[in-house]
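Input sequence (367 aa), recorded before submission:
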Amino acid sequence: MPDTQHLARIKQIRVIADDFTSATDALPAFAQRGWRTRVVLGERLSSPELPEVWSTDTDSRALDDASAEGRVAAWARQWCDADILVKQFDSTLRGPIACEVIAAWRASGRGKLLVAPAFPAAGRTTVNGEVWVDGVPVAETDFSRDPQSPVRVSSVPGLFAAAGQRLHVARDAAEAISLLDRVDAVVVDASTEADLKKLVVAASQRTDLLWAGSTGLLRALAVALPERQQVALAWKGAQYPGIVVGSFNPRSRAQLRHAEACGALVWATPDERGASAALTADLVDRVCDAVLAGRCDGLAITGGETAKHIARRLQAFEIAVLREVQPGIPLCLMRTPKGEFPLVTKAGGFGDDDVFKRCLKSLEGAI
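Predicted structure, token format:
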């Protein structure tokens, strides 16, 4: 039985994400265990309390390497004193992952780097340092045709080698911790939730690590930490919830058809990949007009860019994360000048065909 007493000493966890949905889907597992959580929109929190788990969206997934590095490094310097600092990245390797992780590592002042991409609950595993999705190398899946960040490489060490950093591959948690005594940077294989839990229990004994990984790593950390007693946030369920689909992922498009078939209030961009920014802007305008007119009072949004623009248009200044609807799909409260607003955010590839039905019930407060 591993020693877990050190976990009780962890007080502050900070997460640097590269897009809006990643910044939110990292936190519900902590909220469900009584930890206070917030997503920072802007440079600082507006609420007077001091949440224990913060995340921020650097909005850098589609940026060039130099711009992405600058944004990430600024947050890593600001949060360098956190008990655990995590550079979160997409579980399918979209975006400038290697350069962002390296920038966060250098700016944080931490001596070692631990990379754990796996998210087993969503079908993402790591095998010999490669990311696989539902048993297939990620570069051979639909993510290779992503309109904004197509994935060309499945090998995490390969990505980092191209950025000038060697990653040593560890087969499991024990080998990872052993390697970190001799080398600076390690990527860890994991195929199950148990693999990740062993890793976070072992890794959290060290104070010299920058953690880097997907939502799977953060969920494992939340489960390993001591549960806290906290009064649940009071909120009002939506009477007129709606669904917004701005993602072109094939799974989201299939989910859209199921939502339309059940008569839900739905807004979506056209099915064609690569729809123009004008079409996305039109979608955001139509959704926000309905919200501001009182025709919709809760949203389930898939597509990080779409969610980000809706939050900005509604002048959201903070997001509190309540719980998970499904793995990686959080129910949140978005705080705006006009009051609180229930929100579910979902990355394009997450969820089963009926996920939007559960999202609507969650927005209504029914489950």
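Checked by second reader. The chain has two domains: 9-224, 241-364.
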